[in-house]
Amino acid sequence: MQKPTLNKVLAPLVLGAVILLAWQLALSFELVRPTLLPPPAKVFQRLQDDLAAGILSSYAAVTLKEALLGCLVGVSIAIPLGILMEKNRLAEAAISPYLAASQAIPAIAIAPLLVLWVGYGMRAIVVLCALLVFFPVTIATTLGLRQIETDLIEAARLDGAYGWSLLTQIEAPLARRTVIVGLRNGFTLSITGAVIGEFVMGGQGLGMLLTVQANSSD
Predict the structure, then answer these.
(1) CB of 196 within 8 A of CB of 108?
(2) What local confidence, expressed as pLDDT, does residue 146 receive?
(3) Which of 58, 60, 96, 170 is the most buried (most CB within 10 A)?
């Protein structure tokens, strides 16, 4: 058991070291200009300085709050909808095309519409984050429930598990791993949505900081 755990720790460290080495070599051989990609040491020093000054932490806290709220809103809708789609094939047939089509619209294209509908600020950003979280969590919930073996469901029903008790005591624990994967992917997208939202809809988070620094070529 210790060897796989050790590999999980060493593998990302080794990959990170290789990336840093390639980064430094690219600058040493002048494959990339330092003005476009500063050396790793300078980047880490700047990161340390900004963290010490409290610049990044305050902006990151705002972005994290927006992402968390958006994730909660998205999950509160996505999980029940995923359960409905798995339990009712007619509902799945009706909803699936629209669910898939929603993913063809880039977040940067949705943001200006949300400004018109919701207004500027945190509320619109939370809605955008929820929209991005919605799809992966819905699909993960439906897939997790659908992967449960039919024999297990039938055995549970023979023992008297139906409806809510079947869902909470049998299906939810068995689908938990797949749903967690969807939640993890959804929260990652929520962070992205928060930053994109701040680009377009205003805010006090990392998106605003990136805009200010980009305008000053920093």
Answers:
(1) yes
(2) 92
(3) 170
Taking the C-alpha atoms of residue 218 and residue 210, their distance in angstroms, rounded to an integer, is 9
The SS3 assignment for 16 reads: helix
Element (H, E) at 146: helix 122-146
DSSP class of residue 120 equals: S
- For the chain, which residues score pLDDT lower than 70? 1-4, 6
Structure tokens at 13: 């460290």
CB atoms within 10 A of CB 95: 17
The pLDDT score that the predictor gives to residue 185 is: 93
Please give the model's pTM, rounded to 2 decimal places: 0.82
Q: How big is the CA angle at 191 (ends 189 and 197), to the nearest 5 degrees?
A: 100
Residue found by looking up tokens 């990302």 in the block = 12
> What Rg value do the Cα atoms of the chain yield, rounded?
22
Q: Distance (Å, rounded) from C-alpha 11 to C-alpha 51?
A: 27
- Digit-coded pLDDT (tens) for 131-152: 999 999 999 999 999 999 888 8
